[in-house]
Design goal:
Number of domains: 2
Bound molecules: pyridoxal-5'-phosphate
Strand order of the largest sheet: 6-12-11-10-9-7-8
CATH architecture of the largest domain: 3-Layer(aba) Sandwich
Number of helices: 13
Largest sheet: 7 strands, mixed
Distance between the termini: 18 Å
Order of helices and strands: EEHEEEHHHEHEHEHEHEEEHHHEEHEEH
Number of strands: 16
Radius of gyration: 22 Å
CATH class of the largest domain: Alpha Beta
Oligomer: single chain
């Protein structure tokens, strides 16, 4: 589905956090939007048509002076907010050196940043490889797991287990471990050693239970039966190199049950199968823990980071155990923009802000407010809201056709567009349908602003429900 790009007359809005005083999109922004539409592929023009002109804290402005409270953080990138003085200064002082790019030649910000990153990484994960995008980090984790598997079990130990519904990026390997079939139809000859397992989601229980009932053994048993059947034979574990899962699945903010992950980690350890968490959108405080996998209390072998790792510029990383990360000889890992000095300067300042301002605890504390507001939306329209998931400052509100569990795509797009017209910045619906509205404000948002944005979202959903059904 596409958003309407024609300027539309909308009611004026004025709160301390939102200001709408023109048609939306503002007519003076339309020439820029039109340029993009003429030149870029349709597929990139998937977001509400607002021209971001200025941003500060958790506010975004267009050229006409309209102001939005931001529930996107870009796409879960600006965890410490926009235009932070400390990041600004760090980037400026690196700009002034003229060292804007160094390839893999050493630079100071890179040395400082990897050291700081290792300090916040889980114990035992002490080697960092910097890359540029989240997709590169998951591709690289695949390569590390497969290579390591072969050192333990020869050419047959190359299988990778991943999960239905997962998203790990859009490059070839990342798409193959992604769990949305239509996204990889173009590949045709999929890798037979990538095994897509059912995701243990208590809202859509793979073993047919209603709600959570301490059934992790059964649920995890289903994974083992699936693998045994798919791989055939008793020693199927000997053909598996690794498991990769998002710490929570981004589309709907779906966490695995803790007990399931405990069993998974134990089983991986017992069978020399590496466990990787994709923290690309989950990390850097978003869920009320520094890394979201910490909610499970297990120890992974590798983690993939991206998005919020830098707070702004393109940067990603794989962080892992030394014996896995040090498999390749000098020169075997290169990346043109790995450890770009300006990206690293920004990322170090961003990371320091997260720590100094204790944004992890802040996200944890605001979880209750976000949940309360999301539940108020569900109470206002109980027939079309399902499911709601909240952890830290990530929220997901699914919209369904009245009294069904069928994703309501047109309703979700209409509600996002209406919310944007009310001064709440949201990205396009994601997840099944796509019909899930994701809530991801910068972690510096105040309680008052969070409630104000949620009030706009509630109004938008209630109005669109009334108009569409
Ligand atoms: C969990 C996860 N992994 C990987 C990626 C890919 O990151 P990038 O778009 O930077 O390649 C994304 C992006 O949305 C993501 O959410």
């Amino acid at each position: 589905m596409e958003f309407n790009w024609q300027p539309r007359e909308v009611p004026e809005v004025s709160t301390p956090y939102r200001r709408i005083k023109t048609k939306i999109p503002a007519p003076e922004t339309v020439p820029f939007l039109e340029r993009l539409r003429r030149i870029e592929p349709r597929a990139t023009l998937s977001q509400p048509p607002i021209l971001w002109h200025r941003a500060e804290g958790f506010s975004i402005y267009d050229r006409a002076g309209n102001k939005w409270v931001d529930f996107t953080s870009g796409v879960l990138v600006a965890n410490a907010g926009y235009k932070r003085e400390k990041m600004h200064e760090a980037m400026l002082s690196q700009l002034e050196t003229g060292v804007w790019h160094t390839f893999l030649f050493a630079n100071e910000p890179r040395a400082r940043f990897v050291e700081k990153l290792r300090e916040v990484a889980p114990p035992g994960l002490d080697v960092v490889f910097l890359l540029t995008t989240g997709s590169e980090s998951t591709e690289h984790a695949l390569k590390l797991m497969r290579t390591f598997g072969q050192t333990r079990g020869g050419k047959r130990k190359i299988g990778i287990v991943c999960f239905e519904g997962a998203f790990h990026g859009r490059t070839l390997g990342a798409q193959q471990i992604g769990g949305t079939p239509y996204l990889k139809e173009w590949i045709v000859n999929l890798d037979p050693d990538i095994h897509m397992a059912p995701f243990p989601d208590c809202h859509r229980c793979p073993v047919g239970k209603e709600g959570y009932a301490e059934c992790e053994d059964e649920c995890f048993g289903q994974l083992l039966s699936f693998l045994e059947e798919r791989l055939g034979g008793k020693d199927y574990q000997g053909r598996l190199a690794g498991v990769i899962t998002e710490s929570y699945q981004g589309g709907e903010a779906r966490f695995m049950p803790k007990g399931y992950v405990e069993r998974l980690a134990e089983w991986c350890r017992a069978n020399q199968i590496l466990l990787t968490f994709d923290e690309v959108q989950a990390g850097f405080g978003r869920t009320g823990k520094f890394f979201a996998f910490e909610h499970y209390g297990v120890e992974p072998d590798l983690i993939c980071c991206g998005k919020g790792i830098s707070g702004c510029l393109p940067l990603s990383a794989v962080i892992g155990r030394g014996e896995i990360m040090r498999q390749f000889p000098p020169g075997a890992l290169t990346n043109t923009h790995s450890g770009n000095p300006i990206s690293c300067a920004a990322a170090l300042a961003h990371l320091e802000l997260i720590l100094e301002e204790d944004l992890v605890s802040k996200a944890q504390a605001l979880e209750a407010v976000l949940r309360e507001e999301a539940e108020a939306i569900a109470r206002a329209c109980p027939d079309i809201v399902w499911p709601i998931r909240v952890r830290g400052l990530v929220g997901a509100i699914g919209l369904v056709e009245p009294n069904t569990k069928k994703p309501a795509v047109a309703l979700a797009f209409a509600a996002v567009q209406r919310a944007v017209e009310k001064g709440l910045m949201l990205f396009a619906p994601v997840g099944p349908g796509p019909a899930t509205i994701k809530i991801n404000p910068p972690l510096i948002i105040t309680e008052d602003a969070l409630r104000d944005g949620m009030a706009a979202l509630r109004e938008a959903i209630v109005e669109c429900r009334r108009e569409l059904y």
